[in-house]
Amino acid sequence: MAKGWLRALQSASRLRDEVEIVGLVDLDPAVAEALTAEFGLGDARIGTDLASMIEATKANMVFDVVVPAARFNVVSTALKLGCDVLSEKPLAATMEEASALLELAEEAGRVHAVVQNRRFISGIRRLRRAVEEGLIGDLSGIHCDFFLGPHFGGFREAMDNVLLLDMAIHTFDAARFVSGKQPLSVYCIETNPSGSWYAHGASANAIFRLSGDAVFTYRGSWCAEGRRTSWESAWRLVGSKGMITWDGEDTFEATVAGEEPGLLRGHRNISIPPAPDEDQTHGHESVLVEFVDAVKTGRRPETASDDNIKSLSMVFGAIESARTGLPVSISSEGH
Fold first, then answer.
1. Domain 2-117+284-303 in CATH: superfamily?
2. How far apart are alpha carbons 66 and 85 in whole angstroms?
3. Does a cis peptide bond (omega within 30 degrees of 0) precede residue 301?
4. Nearest to 221 by CA among 195, 246, 244
5. pLDDT digits (tens, 9 = 90+) for 78-92
6. Residue 212 burial (CB count, 10 A)
7. What count of Cα atoms within 13 Å lies in the side-chain half-sphere of residue 246?
8. Burial of residue 197 (number of CB atoms within 10 Å: 0-12, 13-18, 19+)
9. Per-residue pLDDT at 332
10. What backbone torsions phi and psi does residue 4 show, to the nearest 5 degrees?
């Protein structure tokens, strides 16, 4: 993901004169050296200790791309040294660590945001606009299917709760964003199916109760070989007037009730409006632009940590439900 962020920085024309990479920190200096060579960052320092790097370079922003277990130490160090921080997801490895980071960011008066790059794609923005404009009436259901079989190797294949913690959070956050509703409770079954190459939790089925009597269901697997869904999931939104389906890639369909006589009234197609702002549909690049703008202007970023903790609470609520076999309540504050 460090490569993904660096590519996004170099492709974001609005940031070329505003962001300078002054240092790369890695436990293995050779990894950082390879990145500086690949991306032409010859002037950037290389080190293994974040605090020393911040002090040496006088950096004012930290891009955190570490594995989840290292997140708390990295982010807390950066915040305490006066840096604004943009973190990879998840916000933290536990809800307790997430709450502590929110308190640190508030005490330091720094911007602290999380990379939820799936919010910043055209399809999700179009769904959000359609819901806001009441295209299918009052939203009552969001249903997402996610079935892929990636062979990552590395830390993911050794993680507990790998699907829920490392990937499902994207869909959970997007569902909360699209619906504009708050999660209230969850019931989840988590398994590691036969043939899985992951250590734990490669499959999950979750039902969330949302505010406004709405429901969000998620069916997913990261060890599903065969015909895959999109990385963005396959979506079906159900409203009081009709439905929207999106395959997570290029195919949308919005339908409302038709006028056929008999038991079923059939349906008629309606058009879905475009994304409201195409500048916000470039994934990681849009996340970075929005974060830097928030740092410059003092505006609260869309994926600020005190909002993102609500998406994290959906993940840990689902994990707790799977562990206990019982529904779990989710507070409106996310913790």
1. NAD(P)-binding Rossmann-like Domain (3.40.50.720)
2. 13
3. no
4. 195
5. 999 999 999 999 999
6. 12
7. 26
8. middle
9. 53
10. -60, -40
Give residue for tokens 């490669």.
202
Mean pLDDT in residue range 239-262? 94
Q: Enumerate helices (H) and strands (E) in the chain, giving the number of each.
A: 10, 14
**What tokens appear for 191 in the block?**
């398994």
pTM score over 0.70? yes
Rounded CA-CA distance 202/208 in Å is 19
What's the per-residue H, E or C state across 9-74?
HHHCHHHCCCCCCCEEECCCHHHHHHHHHHCCCCCCEEECCHHHHHHHHCCCEEEECCCHHHHHHH
Give the model's pLDDT for residue 260.
86
- The CATH 3.30.360.10 portion of the chain extends over 122-277+310-329
Helix (H) or strand (E) holding 262: none
Residues contacting 108, CB < 8 A, separation 6+: 79, 80, 82
Task: State the amino acid at position 194 in one-letter form.
Answer: S
Alpha helical stretches, state H, 184-280: none
- Residues 287-321 have pLDDT tens digits of 899 999 999 998 999 999 999 999 999 999 999 99
Domain 122-277+310-329 belongs in CATH node 3.30.360.10: yes
pLDDT score, position 13 = 77
Q: Is the pLDDT of residue 280 over 90?
A: no
The answer to whether residue 335 scores a pLDDT higher than 60 is no
Is beta strand 267-270 parallel, antiparallel or unpaired with respect to 252-257?
Answer: antiparallel
Domain with CATH 3.40.50.720 in the chain: 2-117+284-303
CA–CA separation, 150 and 221 (whole Å):
10
Query: Which residue is associated with the tokens 């170099």?
Result: 10
Residue 319 near residue 161 (C-beta atoms within 8 A): yes
The per-residue pLDDT for range 45-80, each reduced to its tens digit, is 999 999 999 999 999 999 999 988 899 999 999 999
Q: Give dist(CA 267, CA 251) in Å, integer.
A: 18
